[in-house]
Amino acid sequence: MEIIKLSSGEKADELRDKIINLLNEYSNILTGYELVGLIDTIREDCHSSIQAMDEEGE
Q: At a CB cut-off of 8 Å and minimum separation 6, what does 50 contact?
């Protein structure tokens, strides 16, 4: 049972922190440019998925 529920804003902050921590694990392997490129690719994939879901809903 969850006693304290997090708002969506708090959940977004939690997710952001997890993503940053995960990226930091790879910071000694990938360059800053590669990490930014990875983030950009993920962003584009998210937009494509949302667009596809919107089109299915129409």
A: none
Contact between residue 31 and residue 39 where contact means Cβ atoms under 8 Å apart? no
φ, ψ dihedrals at 5, nearest 5°: -90, 140
pLDDT band at 2 (very low <50, low <70, confident <90, very high): low
Rounded CA separation 25/29 (Å): 8
**At CA 55, angle to CA 40 and CA 14, rounded to 5?**
40
Q: Is the pTM of this model over 0.70?
A: no
The percentage of residues in the chain with a pLDDT greater than 90, rounded to a whole number, is 41
Residue found by looking up tokens 């937009």 in the block: 47
